[in-house]
Amino acid sequence: MLSLEAAHYDSRQDRAGTDFSVPNSQTRRLGGYQLQPWEDFSLTLQYYAERMHDYPAYRAALPPGFPLERRWSHSVSARATQLFLHQTLRLSVYASYSASYGDYFVNPELRYSFSDRVWGALGANAFGGKPWGQFGQLARDDNIYVQLRYEF
Known about the structure:
Blueprint: E1 2-9, E2 26-38, E3 41-52, H1 55-61, E4 72-84, E5 89-98, E6 103-113, E7 118-129, E8 143-150
Antiparallel strand pairs: 1-2, 2-3, 3-4, 4-5, 5-6, 6-7, 7-8
């Protein structure tokens, strides 16, 4: 299955793009592809891009010493999911990589459904890359989690 999305973010507070504290208008694009190469396994791939409008005005208004955002921002992500034991056990790995900032996020998870209403999960969140990126700034916040949920 192929999916495509596009959006325009309108920065009404600063349409000229001259106020560095207000994000400039952007065009955003998302493309995704999902496939099921074999039974109980799915793979989803996504590509996301943002283009900042009025980039010269943004650069001119940015005070010295502030990190420079890029005109184009690109990231890719993937999720692989395998189901076992009559679909009661799910092994899933999600990974996202920002090509623009060189940082990443990885989330492996093992989830078991005890019943239709109760499930538990064991997973981790791992961040890395350069410290000024969305995920790189969280590099010291890696964690492991346990979750038990009752749904009604």
